[in-house]
Amino acid sequence: MVGAWSLLGVVFFVICKKKYKESFGSLVQLISDEDAATLMPEADDVELDQVIDVAIDRVLARMAG
User: What pTM was estimated for this model as a whole?
Assistant: First the structure.
């Protein structure tokens, strides 16, 4: 049973490594609305949404380039 799960893990690794290439296994830092609110307690919801959208765009641009 352990061997079957190990083989499945190896197959999963090979398929994902082939599909995602260099980005496979990379760490992408995420921030939630609650985390943003604690970092910027003076900001309102609209301002927090703008900050989060800019951060998302920055991460997507980094992943694309």
Answer: 0.43
Q: Which residue has tokens 């992943």?
A: 63
**How many H helices and E strands in the chain?**
3, 0
- Distance between CA 8 and CA 18 in Å, rounded? 15
CA atoms within 13 A on the CB side of 42: 0
Encode pLDDT of 2-32 as tens digits: 999 999 999 999 999 999 888 888 877 777 7
- Residue 57 tokens, joined: 């765009």
- Other CB atoms within a 10 A radius of the CB of residue 36 amount to 17
